[in-house]
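cron nightly-structures :: item 1 of 1
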Amino acid sequence: MLVWQWTAPVLALSSAPVGSGFGPVDWALNIGVGSDYGRTDLTEHAAEITADLGLSGTGAAMFTAVDLDRLVSEDGDGVSVDATVGISHPTWAVDPTATETAQGSPGTINLVVQVPVALEPGAAVNAVITATEAKAQALADRGVPGTGTATDAVVVVWPEEGVAERFAGPRSQWGSRIARAVHQAIWAGTREWSMSPPTTGSTPGVVS
């Protein structure tokens, strides 16, 4: 699994299946699972892992069947992006032929975006939207037939203290940096995916 930990107080806005929403976080996890993963008690699974790791406090947990050796990290002008990218099942946001399914399966494009400045709540929402738009643009640029996968997740993290930025849309200072870093990470991740056949399993790792 991949582990992010923060010692200084930080806030996050997350769509992770465990620890989603807005609030303080102490850690985030990207948990590697097999392609046949069938557990639906994701909160309990994450709690088992945090207990094994000795993690305390609150956090967000994502799940992926992508080989975690394929982690892609990009840093640009203070913004840090870590991505695991799997595109074996790309989907369009609007697809009249698709059927509705439960969202309990592991996500295949997971993003952790760290911004070094405080964000107002609206700017945090801007940041998630900007990261998602940049992801979709990178997939389009790589010729992937979809805007993402049905179970993607994103965690945006920023310091709790400091003068908060009001905007993080793609034309704002920090939003444009988020967009570039996410685009680069997804571009590199899809290239890695296309060059290497999918595998299951994971390698322990820590991202500081």
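cron nightly-structures :: done
The chain has one domain: 2-207.
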